[in-house]
Amino acid sequence: MCRLFGMHAGHVPVTATFWLLTAPDSLAQQSRREADGFGIGAYDAEGRPVIEKAPIAAYEDKAFAAEARDLASITFIAHVRYASTGGNLKVNTHPFEQDNRLLAHNGVVQDLDRLDARLRQLGVMDLVKGETDSERVFALITAEIRSNGGDVEAAIASALGWVAENLRLFAVNILLANATDIWAVRYPDTHPLYVLELSGQDMRGGMQTHRISVRSEELAAGQRPAVLFATEKMDDNPGWRLMDSGEVLHVDSSLAVHSSRPLPAAPRYPLTLEDLDERAAASQKPLHAGAAGPTA
């Protein structure tokens, strides 16, 4: 399954170093898929999105993906892709950008012909540059934001409510960011998504999973709080909380965390792994047991 990471550092940008693909798949573990892409999104001092992403199709790409990357921002999103739809192309690699917002997704949404018809009806099909379900769901959210005057949370509820009612759905775990805020969605309870409200003393050793590692000197110094989202717990901090199914979290510029549950209890047309084709099912296999500890 795809790996998600998000971080909000409050009013003032912090520098963070990211490593992706920190524990490459073992060749002996034939049931494990190699990653198909990686991406990191942040914002510069003027609030403009900065995205570094690439597909992974060769050994050289994997070596490139594993290199350290330094960014300074208030909000960050990172993603490691295991493709369910779309080829190994940059245009299909997360995070995606629309209207100065960034989105990364973990899950599978089917009936894309029906979703495309909805996007054409709303006049936003031009936002879709690639083949993925993720970018199409993002376009649906963007259409709702444009039509409601800029209320991102209401747009998420409306767009994903429509998806849950009309399309076959395995999961839509989402991180969506702009220069000042982050929104996170877990729906339904297919895949985990954790949140941690980090106090100033909690990140001294850095944090990592089997796919994404991050270190920030400002946070490590113990003077800055932050809010983190991750597919896996990134250390042994007892403050990690598994988001509820259907929960939408909004972190604003003051790091206040607002929780709502606007989505249906269950999608109308839920999918299981057995309903997916071989490629999609392989991309959505559950995580390994346990999580890595802090980085050295």
In short:
This protein is α+β, with helices and mostly antiparallel strands and 296 residues long.
Would you kindly provide a written description of the structure presented here, covering whatever features stand out?
This protein has six helices and 18 strands. The protein has helices spanning 59-65, 112-122, 133-148, 152-166, 217-220, 278-283, and strands at 3-8, 14-20, 37-43, 49-55, 69-73, 75-81, 96-98, 101-109, 168-177, 182-186, 194-198, 207-208, 212-215, 226-230, 241-242, 247-251, 257-260, 269-270. The model is unreliable at 23-32 and 289-296 (pLDDT under 50). The chain is α+β, with helices and mostly antiparallel strands. Helices cover 20% and strands 32% of the residues. A seven-stranded antiparallel sheet has the order 4-3-6-1-14-11-15, with no helix packed on it. Strands 7, 8, 9, 10, 16, 17 and 18 form a seven-stranded mixed sheet that branches. A four-stranded antiparallel sheet has the order 5-2-13-12. The protein is globular, with a radius of gyration of 18 Å. The protein has a single domain (3-283), classed as Glutamine Phosphoribosylpyrophosphate, subunit 1, domain 1 (4-Layer Sandwich). Helix 2 (112-122) runs parallel beside helix 3 and helix 3 crosses helix 4 (152-166).
